[in-house]
Amino acid sequence: MSVYSASVTAPVNIATLKYWGKRDKELNLPTNSSISVTLSQKDLRTLTTASASSTFKQDELYLNGKLESLESARTQACLGDLRKLRSELESQDDKLEKLSQFKLRIVSENNFPTAAGLASSAAGFAALVYAIAKLYELPQDMSELSKIARKGSGSACRSLFGGFVAWEMGDLENGQDSKAVEVAPVEHWPTLKAAILVVSDDKKDTPSTSGMQATVKTSDLFQHRIKEVVPQRFDEMKQSILNKDFNKFGELTMRDSNSFHAVCLDSYPPIFYLNDTSKKIIKLIHKLNETEGEIIAAYTFDAGPNAVIYYDEANEAKVLGLIHTYFNQVDGWSKADTSKLSKLEIEGTDP
Ligand code: DP6
């Protein structure tokens, strides 16, 4: 009996305009549009192989060698959508093997620590959806597939593209217009770089899903963010990318990270993701930019204390040099810890 299989890799993406809040939990529809930069697969990626065979007894998922449950409603939503698309193809062409009726075996591996708070669910769901789509030979383009990955994890929809990516929130109730689109390919701004500062690799305090639900329910500031702040920032940030205007891009990125952590603090009870080291990094970057008289480095923090710093290659020595010096001075950090600073490339278009 044949086993059919396909392998893909999907990269991690880091939002510069944050997704935080769902207007529909089942379909994973966001309360605002977001923008991200996709990081290099050389550094952070998920490798997934999807196989189907009539001999498989049940759907199975192995994550980093461990058998994991496929029961979650999110995973089931992705598998259901993909099988439906495959069975539509099969009904149009009866020479096609009935893969939609076979059980699936999915083997997934991250080349970075899953618990390090480095957006592993985004790469994970993007790779899962893309691998099965490839196995099923689906004709849908990446934006179409992003609507399926979105149901796995919101931020995953953006990992189907390289370079600079927008997730348009859409306004339809069925979510058919809530999808990822390319803002610009990586070649557009090849000198933009990112560095990850791993402040802590502990598991998150409050998972993103429950954190954002609490914010939507309890924060007053949140309404201001989604209605007044983000819609304008979305257009401005896209423009700053198209213009390769680091000064503007950096300012908007830092402001949006701060706005996101402000609505977390305004949730009741408050949600804290930044720790003292994160705050010292924020101060350091502002001090550097002040000394330079322009923005040459920009920080952003997701649902955890680790920082991602964006900068232009031309300023690499200045930015990373300062961070290295500084890291060696922070309590609890020693020279050996500088390995926790990873310098990353931005990823190309084809995942
Ligand atoms: C702070 O995509 O992990 O990283 O849709 O519930 O799976 P779910 O949430 P998730 O949230 C990511 C939140 C963020 C911001 C972002 O990536 O845009």
UniProtKB/TrEMBL annotation:
Q: Which reaction does it catalyse?
A: (R)-5-diphosphomevalonate + ATP = isopentenyl diphosphate + ADP + phosphate + CO2
Q: Name one GO biological process term.
A: ergosterol biosynthetic process
Domain Mvd1 C-terminal: start-end pairs: 195-351
Q: Which GO terms describe its molecular function?
A: ATP binding; diphosphomevalonate decarboxylase activity
Pathway info: Isoprenoid biosynthesis; isopentenyl diphosphate biosynthesis via mevalonate pathway; isopentenyl diphosphate from (R)-mevalonate: step 3/3
Gene3D superfamilies with a match to the protein in the record: 3.30.230.10, GHMP kinase, C-terminal domain
Cleaved signal peptide residues? none
Q: What is its EC number?
A: 4.1.1.33
Uppermost EC category: lyase
Q: Which InterPro entries match?
A: GHMP_kinase_C_sf (IPR036554), Mev_decarb (IPR005935), Mev_diP_decarb (IPR029765), MVD-like_N (IPR053859), Mvd1_C (IPR041431), Ribosomal_Su5_D2-typ_SF (IPR020568), Ribsml_uS5_D2-typ_fold_subgr (IPR014721)
Which keywords does this chain's UniProt record carry? ATP-binding, Lipid biosynthesis, Lipid metabolism, Lyase, Nucleotide-binding, Steroid biosynthesis, Steroid metabolism, Sterol biosynthesis, Sterol metabolism
What is a single cellular component term in the Gene Ontology annotation?
A: cytosol
Name of the protein in its database record: Diphosphomevalonate decarboxylase
Instruction: Give the originating organism.
Output: Spathaspora passalidarum (strain NRRL Y-27907 / 11-Y1)
